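pinging the channel bc i need a second pair of eyes. not urgent but kinda urgent?? the chain im working w is below, pasted from the shared doc
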Amino acid sequence: MPPPHERSHSDDAQRRTRLSRLVALVLRHRPDEVGLTLDAGGFAPVETVAHALATQRGWESLTASDLLALAGADPRRYEVRDGRIRARYGHTVHVEQPGEPALPPEWLYYGAPAKAVARMRADGLQPTDRQHVHMSTTPADALDVGRRHAADAVVVVVFARAAHAAGIAFRRAGQTLFLTTRVPAEFLLLPVEPSLDEQEASRDTDQPAGGVGPGLSSTREK
């Protein structure tokens, strides 16, 4: 059995993880279920959020200080401004202005299931179950996101600076995250779809065909 101080640290970490999931659920998807109303930017007063969450079983002792500590420990997900808190990204409820308008870097990256490549080749990047397309600043982050949804995830390169110059607006939602409403296919570097022989080989070896890195083709080159 671990020493008491180690158990306490582990318990604190587990509680923080559970709280983060609850706050994300409420601020991104279900504010109405706890009686919250978000403003146009997705903000709500910290005190009001704390009181609303304290009505949930197991969180009766929750305070505004707990929320401030959570946001301070995870500024990538949460923003506090003028006594209000919001989720920086991931909304399914309507939010008019997530993040801040920003000039994106030359390239951004998007992780997606391999089966989505054909659709992106035709339609570009569009939101799925959220309001915005979420893009990462590194291929590794994008692949991590993609693998949450599919083991055979691939990474799509977004020519973000060129898209911005063509009038596509980008917003920065965190240190490593950018949002937009859509990216036309001409600004995407997509993995080459595997041939039938490659698909058969991947089934034989239990390895996904296609992938990340070599074998990329751009719709801009067509």
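so The two ends are 62 Å apart (CA to CA). and The domain at 100-221 is CATH 3.20.170.30 (ADP-ribosylation fold). — does that match what u expected or am i reading it wrong
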